[in-house]
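Teaching assistant here, posting this on the class forum so everyone can see the example we discussed in section. The complex has two components, and the goal was to see what a joint structure prediction looks like when all of them are supplied at once.
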Amino acid sequence: MSTQFQIEAKSGSGRAGKLITPHGEVETPVFMPVGTLASVKGVPQDVLEELGVQILLGNTYHLYLRPGVETVRRMGGLHGFMSWERSILTDSGGFQVFSLNDLRKVTEEGVTFRSHLDGSLHFFTPESAMAGQIGLGADIIMAFDECTEYPAERERVRESMELTLRWAERSKRYFEEHKEEVPWGDSQRSRARRQAAKQVTADRSQESGATQALFGIVQGGMDRELRRESALRTVEIGFPGYAIGGLSVGEPREMTREIVESTLEYLPADKPRYLMGVGTPEEIAQYAAMGVDMMDCVLPTRAARHGLLFTSEGKISIKQARYAQDENALDPRCGCRVCQRYSRAYLRHLYASNEMLAQVLNSEHNLHFYLETMRRVRASTQDRVASK
Amino acid sequence: MSTQFQIEAKSGSGRAGKLITPHGEVETPVFMPVGTLASVKGVPQDVLEELGVQILLGNTYHLYLRPGVETVRRMGGLHGFMSWERSILTDSGGFQVFSLNDLRKVTEEGVTFRSHLDGSLHFFTPESAMAGQIGLGADIIMAFDECTEYPAERERVRESMELTLRWAERSKRYFEEHKEEVPWGDSQRSRARRQAAKQVTADRSQESGATQALFGIVQGGMDRELRRESALRTVEIGFPGYAIGGLSVGEPREMTREIVESTLEYLPADKPRYLMGVGTPEEIAQYAAMGVDMMDCVLPTRAARHGLLFTSEGKISIKQARYAQDENALDPRCGCRVCQRYSRAYLRHLYASNEMLAQVLNSEHNLHFYLETMRRVRASTQDRVASK
């Protein structure tokens, strides 16, 4: 009644599958664009649909501060609030508390932190993070974890990992007791929205008993042994999906890859595996080939806002003067609407003139590139199986 | 071979007509969104097409500074550069030189001014303004004028008006000698773009001899007598269309209306009449009823970026806390994609959180409201004639 996962094809360690959430189907491996504040910066929801986005990520920390969980809950959760009838995943807030708050204070009970907006004091616990995520009403929510800093001593990493395991149990307990409180409602407005969104897959969120799915998070720093232990003990607690957290926190890329590879071994093959917060287009393709099913990253949209564009010929910094009179498409091999319509010269002009449209178009292109990368990996996994 | 104008219906002083430019048909009265730097801020060209925009305005002053006329010319003019295959009008730069440059120096020959970007010195003459606008390649271009400041002594207004008349003659002379230099080219790329734009009306820009149309501008400050003289003498020079310039420069609204009304009397009924730089939705409807055919204004897009939204129930400041949990559409009677999909609560959240999508969606809605206002005026003019 919550999220299901089906593997359709395997090739080496990679797999092509389907995640079936109460709000539709998600073909995996999947890249999830980040919609921090219930918006993928600069990209309207209908464009996301046209891009083929099947699942979005929202940040609990940011949404908790603005507009607040209660407001979102009253609007029927994030789906209703942002008018997005496809799948959504929220993180637990743990990573933002870690990355945006130098003065956070962690105790057994939870984390005290100051808002990056106004300095006001807040307190997150596994229970309050679950309550927040239930109120936001994403299809997939994440256990509250501590993201261990890098570098860190082994003893510190172990303690942090143990805390995350205890918080995982508390997260699961709270979730099981409160999961019926998810605010999915079938208002006329949301029906109309679904029609407008031309959603073809069944919306099962109104079926009796449909609930969110809570995923566990593996920590353990850059220590393969602790990662193994964290994975095994998180699996023991038992979740319908598992994330690898605590990476992309400043460690060398090669180390990230090693930790991912060694952690994946200990995650159940029949459950979705989510690698949080990576990476470049090359990296997401590599991780997918290693058996990761879900990824998210701000890179495509953030890079876009800085004029860095991903193309089949490599990265382009569109601000460069060399593009000022370049009539070619940004990426001649790209089928996105930006490349179909506009020249590099125009995109360069928009960026150099600080026009808002630069960020809108750049973001659309980069997202297309990421999504297309994943679609290609998925198709090649299926092809390789079919040709056997 | 350049722009033609047909009046299809009249009701009182108002008229419904059709402006046929080398890049398509424009139903009048028409509101022209302002695309200052070859972009209507935050609104992609395909959305403008969906909104039913038939003609855009570009600002010569801004485009001259960035990306420069030569760059645009090499890309086939603004149509090719910004991938917009429908009609375009450029102003002459005179108004921006006036409004953005306190230190401008006007002589008989032209205007010396400093770039608002880097303080560099530039010199515009009627001839260079025409050369610039021919290079930009809009369908309709404007004579180079001096926008008289407000308030001003009668003698100063007269001198300024006389200068504008002499500059109008020089503009026309230069244009007639150089109009064949318009950079409309039929590259494969532009053919593909036109198909992508699903342009249904004929693109006549490739017909041999298709040229731009140069409109004259009436000045004369707030003096009805000088306006009359300016109108008659501008008509004597002879243009395929006439603009009323020098308004919305700080004078009371009632004065604007009076000057427009008295000036319209002296403009030929069979030529398009363009009122520059106005106004609110109520005002543009009033001016259309008075017989104005074309208008432009930054108000819908600028107001949108400040969270001011036009609705059938009046203006809304979406930043207000009262909308924080308002599930209603911004304007329940509006058919635009923003009102069909999103709630006031969501728009308020986007604005309050400084999300780029706020500006994108707000601009789309306000433009729809302006365009719909004009379509309503046009339809009612035709209906009133039909029911007689």
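For the discussion questions: Chain B has a mean pLDDT of 94. The two ends of chain B are 35 Å apart (CA to CA). Think about how each of these relates to the inputs above.
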